[in-house]
Specification:
By secondary structure, the protein is an alpha+beta fold. It contains 7 helices and 9 strands; from the N terminus they run αβββββββββαααααα. A hairpin with a 3-residue loop joins strand 6 and strand 7. Helix 3 packs antiparallel against helix 4, helix 4 runs antiparallel to helix 5 and helix 6 runs antiparallel to helix 7.
């Protein structure tokens, strides 16, 4: 009996050394992947909770470097160089540290993202960029800390750091125009209908040279005469150029092609434009 008992104990000890208990983490990990213009922005961080604590000025002291989250470094990755606070930040991965204050936060992009929390020895030479984020007091409380990419446009977005009743906002710009224009110039050496259409769409939607956009969209429709979406874009560009007669003609052709293709959305959009331009 004694031998059986010892055998069972040994088995339990062996099980204890190999088994691992899986349980929720108090600060769960989060990952956000967001396309801004043509730039990929990736955030990886942990999300501590308020848990009835006073956060800023108490748990997170004012005027001191904060790990900006919990556990391993909060990391951000930009696939292109971006502009923050009028300064250039090279593409790559950075740890985000912050220095919260009552009216503003300093946001630091640190080149070494391999730390657990703050570095044991802070190295100012590793701060790639420092910028100031605007702080607002929210009319509600956010229980879990969050970093979000908001107010997204072709040219940029904002990073929102939100916890408790505090929100800190940091705008950044991405090189969409530079990349798109370079792509257009490259493709224009031997473009097809879709290339001309894409270039014309970008110029029209970005408020650039409409005459150039019209030149390109005409080439697109000449190369792909049955593309109702291209004729729709052509009509909109012509309308913006004040070419009402041409815009009506292009919209009518787009609508006829859309009806043939049984695309109700384009039929509806063209009818609305023709009504607006007094053609129906």
């Amino acid at each position: 009996m004694k031998k059986v008992f010892l055998f069972m104990c040994a088995g339990l000890l062996a099980l204890g050394t190999s088994a691992q208990i899986e349980a929720p983490q108090p600060s769960p990990a989060a990952k956000i992947e967001q396309k801004v213009g043509l730039t990929d922005v990736t955030l990886e961080y942990s999300r501590p909770a308020v848990r009835d604590r006073e956060i800023f000025g108490e748990l997170v002291p004012f005027g001191e470097v904060w790990r900006t989250g919990a556990n391993a470094n909060t990391k951000i990755t930009f696939s292109d160089s971006v502009e923050i606070g009028g300064k250039n930040l090279a593409k790559g991965t950075y740890a985000i540290y912050t220095i919260p204050n009552k009216d503003s936060w300093e946001v630091l992009f640190y080149k070494d993202a391999s730390n657990w929390g703050n570095p044991q020895e802070w190295d100012d030479s590793k701060v790639a960029l420092k910028a100031t984020a605007k702080v607002e007091t929210m009319p509600f409380s956010m229980e879990s800390f969050g970093i979000f990419v908001n107010e997204i446009s072709n040219g940029g977005a904002v990073l929102d750091f939100v916890w408790s009743n505090t929100s800190a906002t940091l705008p950044f710009k991405v090189p969409t125009d530079v990349k798109t224009l370079a792509s257009i110039e490259k493709v224009m050496n031997g473009p097809g209908a879709n290339d001309y259409y894409a270039a014309a769409s970008f110029y029209q939607e970005s408020g650039k040279d409409l005459k150039k956009a019209h030149e390109w969209v005409k080439k697109a429709t000449a190369m792909q005469d049955d593309a109702f979406w291209m004729w729709r874009k052509r009509s909109l560009i012509e309308a913006e150029l004040g070419m009402k007669k041409e815009a009506i003609s292009s919209a009518q052709k787009s609508m006829a092609l859309a009806e043939k293709a049984k695309n109700a959305d384009y039929v509806k959009m063209n009818k609305a434009s023709l009504k607006e331009w007094g053609a129906i």
